[in-house]
Amino acid sequence: MDGEEPERRRGVATPQPLRRVLRFFRVRGAVVGAFGDSISTAPSYADPLAQLLGVGYGEQAIGGYKTSDLLAYLKPSMTSRYTDSVLLCGINDVIQSVSAATIEANLTLLLAQLNNPVVVCLLPFGNYAGWTSGKEAVRVAVNDWIRANVAHYVDAETVMGTAGALKPAYDLGDGLHPNDAGNSALAQAIFEQGFNSTPLAEG
């Protein structure tokens, strides 16, 4: 698990070498992995989610990553550490004008690699500096695809968003990343929508 640690940056970032720091411990044999971009890096929803579930967790997430970056990064030795997975990735694709079809294809490939995945719909980002109506249309299209094609997903927008943007009480300040209260709310939504219908696997 040792390597080099990436620079912890908010928003779209150039990935840096990483020393993976995993809060990696087992409770009841289950370990949940949080996969994605800077929204899933510490501090994130992963810690409060693990507390709700009563399990260990780890993060395989790097700031600035698109779905294609995560695909290139992940190896079986990483994904096999986790009995269950939470995938929240794609907003950097949207910001960088990647098509909905490409994001959806990459998500399909990622899902094939993850154990017992729960996918979180892309969070609203209407107050982010890089928002455009065209990018919003892509985000909406990807979320519609997730709802129609993914067995276990979390539709967090009604919890986290209002009028196409993060709720002010949940916004770290850039219109893109949740603050501590937002991470707790997101963890609760994942717990209720994702794991009530998808029991944890035994390790």
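(the above was protein one; protein two follows)
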Amino acid sequence: MKLISALTAGSLLAAGAVVAVAVPASSAPLTTRCIGTAADVTVPGNLVVPAGQSCDLTGVTVNGSVRVAAGADLIGDGVTVTGAVTAAEDGFVGLIDSEVAGRITSRQGFGVSLEASSAGSVVARAVEGSEVVGTTWLESDSTVSGLVDVATGELLISSSSVGGNVVGNGTLYADVVDSTIGGTFTVTDNEDGSVFCESEVYGDATYTGNGGTLQLGADGPVEVCETASFWGGDVTLDENSADVFVDQNIVAGDFTGEGNTGEVTLGEGNRIRGELGGQFAAPAEDAAAAMRAFAVAEDRQAESEAALDARFAAAEADALKAGAAQL
């Protein structure tokens, strides 16, 4: 699915100039403010998007790190950042076909959306008292070489790859669709559960204390899955109140669980190479019949997709109105 549109040509040709450069001490790196649009330039140091402003970059290289202040927007196509990117509360980072060498950190930001882009790692953290519900989405062949660790809002990894561990802790949901995880997958205390569909994880997978629905590989109530999922280690589900649907999986290790209080459906389309343990050792209800009886939920990602598109479009319009940021 496509989350954010390509940048319009008009945004690259906007007239005017809004820019300020801070004069640093001799030992400090140069810091440049970005308000407006810029294309095909190199920023020789760090970049800052001031609070409430928008910065729209195309073909820009930042030889440093980027800080997106509260309520600000950084959007870009073909952008290279040699350092890290940090977004404050309600800040938005939306990148297409771009590369961030370091970590992208969102502190209760509006969202981080990567489309056909790469990053060293992605981390989202909650801010006490904030009412912002953030979104962390990786899609369309995006790659993260390290970890993805999200502790707020929504997490979706779609048609992408993560080299390290993936953690969804206290999010609304943590969904992985048509993607690869090189490390472990940990889902804890998520309100709406998790979907793992047509994907591969090469470390252990652990689900603990989740509500909603846990759909593991199955062509089930939340996501339509046409091919099997692969689990390279053990899969453990403990103390979940969620309804659990497990089908169309190849599990290299053990599949175990205790204390799950929702409906548990373990289908016949699984190949467990290790041991079935805990409450999964008993014969389970036929998965296909159970899923036919389960009403298909409305696409829970649709509202967030629309919100990201709207924020991206608003940021693009604001940057165009501000004019050319002569970086």
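Reviewer note on protein two: The mean pLDDT is 87.
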